[in-house]
Amino acid sequence: MKVFGQRPVVIALALLLCVLVVLAVACQAEEAPTPGNPGGTRTQPTQEAGLPTAIPNPLPESVDSPEVAFTLTILHTGQVYGETEPCG
Amino acid sequence: MILLDSGDSLFATGAIETANDDGQGALLTRAMTAMGYDAMALGAQDLAPAPIAQARFQEAGFPILSTNVAAAGILTNVRPYLLQEVEGRTPGVLTRIAIVGATNEATMEQRAQALGMSLEVGDAVEAIRRTVEEVQKQADVIIVLGNLSQETNELLVHEVPGIDAIIGVYGSWQIHPTAVQGPEGQVVLHASGTLGEYLGVLTLYFDTQGRVVSFEGSGVALTPDYGDDPDIKRILLHHRYCQAVMLARRGQVVLLDREVWRC
User: Fold this and answer.
1) pLDDT tens-digit profile of B27-81?
2) Which residue from A16, B102, B139, B197 could staple onto B98, CB 3.0 to 4.6 Å apart?
3) Would you call B208 exposed, middle or buried from its count of C-beta atoms within 10 A (0-12, 13-18, 19+)?
4) Does the distance separating the beta carbons of B13 and A86 come in below 8 Å?
5) Which is nearest to B196 in space by CA: B166, B156, B236?
6) CB proximity B223 to A under 8 Å
7) Residues A76, B3: C-beta atoms closer than 8 Å
8) Terminus-to-terminus CA distance in chain A, angstroms?
9) Which of A35, A73, A78 sits opposite B7 (nearest CB)?
10) Which residue in chain B has the smallest CA separation from A73?
């Protein structure tokens, strides 16, 4: 009898868990840009490019090394998504 | 030193009608012009209803680059690439740079369709391959500037010889400078993140053959520790004032603090 009495509570907790999982997945999906919703989210945590073919940076012992003929510095931005912050 | 934007910058995401305001994008184009941007790649979020986009593109004091979107007759100031000479480490010695613009096909097609614009959007990899072949004899360094997916960027590295660096990626990622071996040497990828939170800073070191031998860089968080530039602040306040006047003319109530009114 005790087991039967607990069943609604267990079912309710299971349903609540399902709802929370669905909400968590939905929120994560909102973060990921798609062609229909191209980003506009805050910068994700910094990551390596995650490329299996990435190679180590062969930094010369000194940038004054004779191997280095010239340098170029690039400052860059991107995906500013307008003047207002879409996420409020 | 060159200053670039990888696109998807002028207009906010969301409903198309949010761009249906003739002042949208004006602040960014004015500020970017004042800051001396050398070029911006064309992204889907740089499109708005034609009259607004045309006005912004004309106001921009820098070219908007895309090698795989044909915008002639619809948008001015769009070209496939930019050739520029910059002074490298040796004073007086100029380095010839080609900056090739690349646009994310999927997002651009969808945005153009929603706006009723008939733009020709081509395959980015093939368009870049053709453009790189064209500019290779005119430039010591070739940079692809765009908003392509990470997968497409990787494809470019492996399939298009001659590229030295790829700046920008589609999505919300900030990516550390990373080198990948291409057919003619290493290619460096870097992305600075979104919403103007970070400034990407990348220094490339080249040998006498114009090949990347090393690099260093990072994303610099633009925190309040950095003071406001007086010129840019003036542009911002002027823009807010004009917006307030425009809204007031439309009969909407506008609340501004005294500082803004004084400007």
Assistant:
1) 899 999 999 999 999 999 999 888 889 999 999 999 999 999 998 888 889 999 9
2) B139
3) exposed
4) yes
5) B236
6) no
7) yes
8) 52
9) A78
10) B203
Instruction: Please give the structure tokens belonging to residue A52.
Output: 């299996």
Give the predicted TM-score (pTM) of the model. 0.81
Radius of gyration of chain A (CA): 25
Type of residue numbered B38: D
Which residues are A75's β-sheet partners? B3, B201
**HSE-CB for B61 with a 13 A CA cutoff:** 11
| Residues contacting B175, CB < 8 A, separation 6+ | A46, A47, A48, A49, B150, B169, B189, B190, B191
Cβ neighbours of B223 (radius 10 Å): 8
ipTM: 0.90
CA-wise closest residue to B109 among B100, B96, B118? B118
The CB-based long-range contact list for B51-58 (8 Å cut-off, 24+ gap) reads: B51/B22, B52/B19, B52/B20, B52/B21, B52/B22, B52/B24, B52/B25, B53/B25, B55/B22, B55/B26, B56/B10, B56/B24, B56/B25, B56/B26, B56/B29
